[in-house]
Amino acid sequence: MKRVDDFRLQLGSHELVPIMVGGMGVDISTVALALEVARLGGVGHISDAMVPTVSDRRFNTKFVKDKLQQYKLNVANSDKSSVKFDLGILAEATALHVRHAMDAKQGTGLIFVNCMEKLTMNAPKETLRVRMSAAMDAGIDGITLSAGLHLGTFALIENHPRFHDVKLGIIVSSLRALQLFLRKVARTNRLPDYIVIEGPLAGGHLGFGMDWAQYDLATIFVEIRDWLAEQHLTIPLIPAGGIFTGSDAADFLSQGAAGVQVATRFTVTHECGLPDHVKQEYFKASEEDIVVNTISPTGYPMRMLKSSPAIGDGIRPNCEAYGYLLDASGNCQYIDAYNREIAAHPDAKKIRVWDKTCLCTQMRNFDCWTCGQKTYRLKDTTRRTANGDYQLLTAEQVFHDYQFSINNEIALPD
Ligand SMILES: Cc1cc2nc3c(=O)[nH]c(=O)nc-3n(C[C@H](O)[C@H](O)[C@H](O)COP(=O)(O)O)c2cc1C
Question: Going from the N-terminus, what domains does the chain have, and what CATH number goes with each?
């Protein structure tokens, strides 16, 4: 029986342990987590979601405060079209975040940044170009394009000096999405260096509709693998979503996957950015506590714990401070939902909004507890302490468990 360590992920000249830890915004996949994964020889991700906020926390910058100050007269206005990101500041925040990771990197692994297209930031193209360019300038090893079809994304950076040297990958959930993407990038004379195939059991936003349960990762993986072979295209494939044990991973590697992308098992490690009390919620969860809903204003279904404080919260939209989901015309679905509830309950001190959430604020405050479907199994990966809490793990333990375990076993911590 094979184990993950019998395989290697070849990305250009890099030979890696075939474990990629997926990006988890906002700062759930921290620099500390990515550094550990790189040290151990795999691929770690940071995320550039809400990077000015992350920079304020880590480096004492005042980007959010300054933006709020600039736009404070607009707070009561439901038209947010004037609330723009300063591209220079966005580049500065990205550079701080990425350099912090790259300067500290040790070992043979790589650090990539997860870049979501759905963070449209009231100027989708310009802000995406700046985010990617600044990350490349700061030395990032690779960029994983996610949460969107990214049909124009390669073109945005094709004149960057690192366009052909940085590793570029895309997350897709269907062969059709991949075909559309490949057709579009053909013009830039550059293929993606890897393709993450994300199935319906993943955490975060899903590339499926509410009928997600009718799909399965293994089927989509085989479909994409066979199609690429027919086209004589050799691009490393990295399945993701619900790969919970080293044996799950080794199964995919035996069928031709180049690596696997995993995330949920790392949410309960010391290095993960979630607060400790939230990590305990993840440990405690049973299958019935996990839901896929449509409260994200991005329009994509999202998986989360039912007990997330974000669900039903009715806070005032915070676009002057954040505004990451404002589309090209300055709209966000949460603003509409919030205004509808305010109009329906003009005298209420506190309103509830159930159909959408202010995702920027909730993710920033770690109050939207997004998670993979297999979160309910996390309790089986650790021990309980005397006070009833679950023992947190180290990223190294989880990484090595994926790398070396067989027979679907999970090694418990000492
Ligand atoms: C807490 C959490 C947050 C996530 N956030 C993002 C994100 O910001 N961008 C993204 O592309 N994927 C995100 N994902 C998806 C993961 O990167 C990964 O592809 C997927 O969860 C792997 O499946 P697994 O969690 O079952 O191992 C997130 C997953 C989790 C668990």
Answer: 4-77+86-274+386-404 (3.20.20.70)
